[in-house]
C-alpha cells in the first residue's frame, strides 16, 4: 500500500537531522552505513510499489504529517556527506593531530577566542543520557501515520512527546539508533490477536533496551468517505491485527466483503481519503477519521470490548532499575540441549516467588532444528526455540539477580531486554483513541 503525504507544517526529519548536524554531534560512521543501506532497501521497496517512506515527525497532539520520502533521503544524504567530510578532515589533519598540537605546542597558532561553529563539539554526558536534555521535547518514533494506535501509545507513555511517524518498525528502531528519535514504541501483544511475533524478532535483532510499557485499550471504528453507505462497500482495509480483532463484528454487520491488509490502521484511512475510494472502508481510530475527513460508519467494532494492545518503549540506554515501585523485566534465552531445561529455568523464578507474566517462544533462526539420533528408532528432529519471558521483578531486586544467575547455568544464550516500570494505570477498557 502507498502512504500519501497530506500537506502540513510539521517539522520534518530533514530539519531534525540538520539540527543534529548543527549541534555538531559526531555520528559514528557505522551508523551512516546503516542509514545508506536503508535508503537502498526503501528505494527497492518503493519501486515495487509496496512501501512508501513517510518519515515526517509530528507533534503528538497536533497530528502533523509532513515531509516526503525524498526529504528523508536527502536528509540522510546530508548526514552521510557531513560525516564523510568530517572523517576526511580528520584524516587529512592526521586524526588526533589537534591534541598533539595543543599538548606538544606545535606550530598551530592557538586562537582561543574565535570558535568556529563548524567544528564538531565533543559529546557531553547529556548527549549520552537516556533522558532528553532539560526542556527538550522527547521524540518518539512509531510505525504508522498520525492516527495510528502506536501514536496514541506514544502519547500515553510520554504525554508531551513529539511523535515521529515511520513507515516500518525497522525504521523506528533505526531512528533511535541514529539519534533522530529518543524512543521507539513497539506493539508486542494484543488481547485478541496474541503476540506480534515479528516485533519479538526485531527486539532480538536490534540492541535497543525496553524502558517502559503501556497497555492501550483499542477501540476500532469503521470509516468511509462522507456519504458512503455500508451497502456500497466491496472491501475493508486495515492492519492485519485490526482486521483479525474485528473479524466477527464485520460479519455481523453483513460485511462479507474482501479484507485487505495494509501497513497500519490510520494509513488505511489516509489511503481511502487520498484516493477517493467510495467502495472501501478502513478499520481505524476515531482520531484517524478526524484527521483524514472520514465518517464513522460503526464504532466499537472490535470483537471484544476490552480489546487491549501492549506496547513497549525502547531506548538506546537502559534505565536504572529501582525497587520502590513495581517493575517488570524482559529476557530472552536459548537453552542447552535437554528436555527438562525449560522447567529448570522457569523454576528458578518459581522458587523465588517471582511471577512470570508472559512466556513466548520463537523458532531459533540460526539453529532451527536439533537432530537426535536414536539407532533403534531413527532420527528425531526437534525445533529449537528462543524463549521470551517477562517476570515481575526489577533487576535491582536481589531475587531477580539470583534467578538470572541460575538461569545462566542452563542456557546457551541469555539477554536482558530491559527492566522497566510496569504500567499501573487503572484498567478502563473504554475508548482512548
Ligand atoms: O496500525 C496501527 O494503528 C498500529 O498501531 C499497529 C497495531 C498492531 O500492530 O497491533 C497496534 C494496535 C492495534 O492492535 C492494531 C494495530
Q: What do we call the CATH homologous superfamily of the domain at 319-428?
A: ACT domain
Instruction: Output the number of helix runs.
Output: 14
What is the average per-residue confidence, as pLDDT, rounded to a whole number? 75
Q: What ligands does this structure carry?
A: prephenic acid
Shape annotation: globular
> Beta-strand percentage?
15-25%
Low-pLDDT runs of 5+ residues are 1-116
Helix content: 25-40%
Largest sheet: 7 strands, mixed
The CATH architecture of the domain at 319-428 can be given as: 2-Layer Sandwich
In whole angstroms, the N-to-C terminal distance is 23 Å
Stated plainly, the CATH topology of the domain at 319-428 is called Alpha-Beta Plaits
CATH secondary-structure class of the domain at 319-428: Alpha Beta
> What is Rg?
25 Å
How would you classify the helix and strand content by structural class?
Answer: alpha+beta
